[in-house]
Amino acid sequence: MEFLTSDFFTIMKNGAFIKALKSEHKVGSILFVPTTKNSEKTMKYLKLVMKEFEKYGLTYENIMVLSEELSADDYNNVTCIFLMGGSVAVQHELIYQNGEFLKFLINFSGLTIGYSAGSLNLGSHIFLHPRHKEGDNLHLEGVGKFDFSLDVHCPSDAKEIYKLDYEKVKDMYFKMLEEVC
């Protein structure tokens, strides 16, 4: 089961989400997929996520962070993959540089949680709005766990923002759609 969220810490306040999460939880290993090459920052947020899980009795025997040192054997007991929030591009590079992990992720049938950037990377195609500050024309091929595109952190005044930006980006947007379709 995949859960896609724009803000993990906010959704953890939703009782229905907690109930759904508990119904899918299995003791085993959790594998975090970081969005930064800064291991201190990764560990800071990993600890915050684990603290949230522990509040609701969601524990794991082993906690791992995806890195070049892990091999396919390390994935054997993974029951949850948590794709962290942060840089879509950094996480995308990490996923795609490890062919064994990419194959594992695509075929994984356990609990998968995408948080912000992680949600985007699970899709088929990633188009980022310039407000994400990862480039004005960022288009990446995603993992393909689902066949739709989404945006995260969409502001409440999105219609006005997109209307204002529409004239600036419409040619680029339609060109990207033509390339995809």
Average pLDDT, to the nearest integer? 82
Number of helices: 7
What structural class do helix, strand and pairing data support? alpha/beta
Task: Specify the oligomeric state.
Answer: single chain
Q: What are the defining features of this structure?
A:
single chain, 181 residues, alpha/beta, five-stranded parallel β-sheet, two-stranded antiparallel ribbon, 7 strands, 44% helix, disordered C terminus
Task: Please give a structural write-up.
The model is unreliable at 161-166 and 176-181 (pLDDT under 50). The chain has helices at residues 8-11, 15-24, 39-55, 88-97, 99-107, 117-122, 158-180; strands at residues 2-5, 29-33, 62-65, 78-83, 111-115, 125-127, 139-141. It is of the alpha/beta class.
Annotate the secondary structure layout.
Blueprint: E1 2-5, H1 8-11, H2 15-24, E2 29-33, H3 39-55, E3 62-65, E4 78-83, H4 88-97, H5 99-107, E5 111-115, H6 117-122, E6 125-127, E7 139-141, H7 158-180
Parallel strand pairs: 1-5, 2-3, 2-4, 4-5
Antiparallel strand pairs: 6-7
In short:
The protein contains 7 helices and 7 strands.
